[in-house]
Amino acid sequence: MYKPEQLLIFTTCPDANIACRIATALVEAKLAACVQIGQAVESIYQWDNNICQSHEVPMQIKCMTTDYPAIEQLVITMHPYEVPEFIATPIIGGFGPYLQWIKDNSPS
């Protein structure tokens, strides 16, 4: 069975400054090859039995599967939310040289 080597992790932050701090820490620690920070989105969600609405900044983290535990720990430690969004999906295909670049720039 194929076991993906790379992951794409999605998370959101309450603002761009926090997103930049987390992204920089991940890349400096060589846990992620690249972190993309998107434009603010409007999120509507349920929290503590209330419907809430807030601006959030989406992030995409490209990394190696083996680094997932360390990435989760770093993000959860730096993140201000009590329960931040943190979703990992395997990369099951892609341009070979790009996937190699992820591997080369986030060595486990």
Automatic annotation (TrEMBL):
GO terms for biological process: response to metal ion. GO terms for molecular function: copper ion binding. Gene3D superfamilies: 3.30.70.120. InterPro entries: Ion_tolerance_CutA (IPR004323), N-reg_PII-like_a/b (IPR011322), N-reg_PII/ATP_PRibTrfase_C (IPR015867). It holds the Pfam family CutA1. Belongs to the CutA family. This is CutA1 divalent ion tolerance protein.
